[in-house]
Write a structure and sequence with these properties.
With about 250 residues, this protein is of the alpha/beta class. The chain contains nine helices and eleven strands.
Length: about 250
C-alpha cells in the first residue's frame, strides 16, 4: 500500500439553480453551518489542509472566504462550468507534487463521513486500483448515474440518466459521485475524455470507461447509508437535511 499523501478535491463551483436562490449552492446552511463546511470537516479528518483543494467558480470570493475559515486549504478556479471532469482538470495544477491518490468529493454532500472516506482510500490502496468509486443502492435511483457492469460483473462505466437507455435506468445501484483515483491516472484519463453526451460536458464519470477500456483496475465501495452520500440539490432536499441534522443532534444530547 502507498504511503504517499492523499489529496482531496472538493467540487464547489456551481450556483445550483434548483435551489432557487442567489446564494452559491455550497453556502446554503444546515443547522447554522454551510454545506461546504461539513464537507471540509470530513476531508480534514483524512488529510491536512495543504492537501485539500476547493474548486470555486460561482461567487468564488464568498466560497473562498468560507473555506478559508478551516485554514490553509488550496483553491482552483473553474471560470466556466463545463462539467465535473472539467472541474477536476482545473484542480490538477493545485495538487501537491507528492500526492499519490486523489479523493474527489462534492461540496453539496454534507453528511459524508471522514470514516467513509478513509475506508474508500484503504480499499483503493489495498487493491492497487486505478480508480475506486463509492456507490449506493437506492429504491428510487431517478436522477443519478447508474453503475454499469460487464457480463463478468466488472464495473465498466457510469451512465448518466440523461444518456441512459430504459433498461439502464432500471438499475438501482448508482454512483455517489465520490472517488479515489491514482493521481497520474486521473490526469491521463481526463485528457482522453470528450463531451459526447446530452449536456455537452466533460463528465468525471467517464474516467471509469477509460479505465475499463485500458484494462486498469476498477473497484467500488458500497455505502450502506444512502443519506450519507445523497446531494442537496433543492429547497426540499435542504429541508430534509435540516430534519436529519436536527434528529442527529437530538440523539447526541438525549
Amino acid at each position: 500500500m502507498s504511503n504517499s499523501p492523499v489529496s482531496i478535491v472538493i467540487l464547489a463551483a456551481g450556483l445550483g439553480t434548483r435551489m432557487k436562490s442567489d446564494k452559491a449552492k455550497v453556502l446554503h446552511e444546515i443547522a447554522g453551518k454551510s454545506m461546504l463546511s461539513y464537507v471540509l470537516d470530513a476531508a480534514l479528518t483524512v488529510t491536512a489542509c495543504e492537501h485539500v483543494v476547493v474548486v470555486v467558480g460561482c461567487q468564488a470570493e464568498a466560497v473562498r472566504a468560507e473555506a478559508a475559515k478551516k485554514g490553509g486549504v488550496r483553491f482552483a478556479f473553474q471560470e466556466r462550468q463545463l462539467g465535473t471532469g472539467h472541474a477536476v482538470q482545473c484542480a490538477l495544477d493545485a495538487l501537491s507534487e507528492e500526492t499519490g491518490d486523489v479523493v474527489i468529493l462534492c461540496g453539496d454532500v454534507p453528511f459524508i463521513a471522514g470514516d467513509t472516506i478513509c475506508r474508500l482510500v484503504a480499499a483503493h490502496r489495498q487493491e492497487a486500483r486505478a480508480v475506486t468509486l463509492l456507490s449506493v443502492a437506492l429504491e428510487n435511483p431517478t436522477g443519478y448515474g447508474r453503475v454499469i457492469r460487464d457480463p463478468e460483473g466488472n464495473v465498466s462505466r457510469i451512465i448518466e440518466e440523461a444518456d441512459a437507455s430504459e433498461q439502464e435506468r432500471e438499475i438501482n445501484v448508482v454512483n455517489a459521485g465520490i472517488y479515489c483515483v491514482k493521481k497520474d491516472f486521473l490526469a491521463w484519463a481526463l485528457s482522453r475524455i470528450e463531451p459526447h453526451n446530452a449536456q455537452n460536458e466533460i463528465y468525471l464519470t467517464d474516467i471509469i470507461g477509460v479505465a475499463y477500456t485500458n484494462k486498469r483496475r476498477i473497484g467500488t465501495l458500497v455505502c450502506p447509508d444512502a443519506d450519507e452520500v445523497i446531494g442537496v440539490n433543492s429547497r426540499a432536499d435542504l429541508a430534509r437535511a435540516e430534519e436529519r441534522m436536527a434528529a442527529g443532534l437530538r440523539g447526541k444530547t438525549s
